[in-house]
Amino acid sequence: MKKYILNDPAALGNASGKEAAEKIKEAISQKGVANIILATGTSQFETLQQLLSDKAIDWRAVNMFHLDEYIGLPITHKASFRKYLIERFIQQVPALRAAHLIDGEADPASECERLGKLILEHPIDVCLCGIGENGHLAFNDPPADFVTTSPYIVVALDEACRKQQFGEGWFPTLEDVPKQAISMSIHQIMQSAHIICSVPDDRKAKAVKDCLENEVSHLYPASILQQHPSCSLYLDKHSSCLLQP
Asked: Which residues in 118-150 are b (16+ Cβ under 10 Å) and which e?
């Protein structure tokens, strides 16, 4: 794992977005197509903006997947990750080759099966992700399932995860935060050729410390990134403040 510590979220997003753009262009150059995974949430704002600013990317050669979506949440809700990606990414680029969004309003088991077949046909070149306040990777809350090889799974969201979503302003009350989601599995995330993980803010400092300075454990889901052969972790001075020097 390569670790980069930047001064602030803007610098973090600039650096991580530039690396993502280069990896995407590299995949297109080598294979004629790039398969990518995008994350959502406040940690990805600057990264996506930087990625969108690179006019040399041929988005017509890019297939996009994303990490997770709440079960039962309408696409019109401001917390919908489909809505997030449509407004902040898909509508901002020329026509993608394909955008495979998770439909949280569909039958969960059928949706997991549909997306699982699709992603297995599209080996991922670049995965953008973050780390949650509870150390989760996608919506794989602790104790995360490190065993399943199913690409997408139905997960229960723990209270810490739901408090984060409420605290970030996506929902009016904690009770409004859904208790289940469809998430890409840990195993599937780790199949990505390159992982670029962006983690700003002091809210994430303990999770960053737990996932980097402990041995790999399902109690610290993002600790699995220590084992990935090509993972870049972008932190700012706030999210990295508890790390040992």
From this structure: ebeebebbbbbbbbbbbbbbbbbbbebbbeeee
Phi (first) and psi of residue 238, to 5 degrees = -85, -50
- Assign 235 to helix, strand or coil: strand
The DSSP call for residue 175 is: G
Q: Which domains does the chain have, with CATH numbers?
A: 2-236 (3.40.50.1360)
pLDDT in tens, 144-201: 999 999 999 999 999 999 999 999 999 999 999 999 999 999 999 999 999 999 999 9
> Quick one: tokens of 64?
């996009």
Residue of 209, 234, 210 whose CA lies nearest to 220? 210
The two tokens of residue 221 are 């889901």
Cα 115 to Cα 132: distance, rounded to the nearest angstrom: 23
Measured in whole angstroms, the distance separating CA 215 from the mean position of its chain's CA atoms is 22
Chain position carrying tokens 């046909």: 121
Q: Give CA–CA dist 6/14, Å, rounded.
A: 10
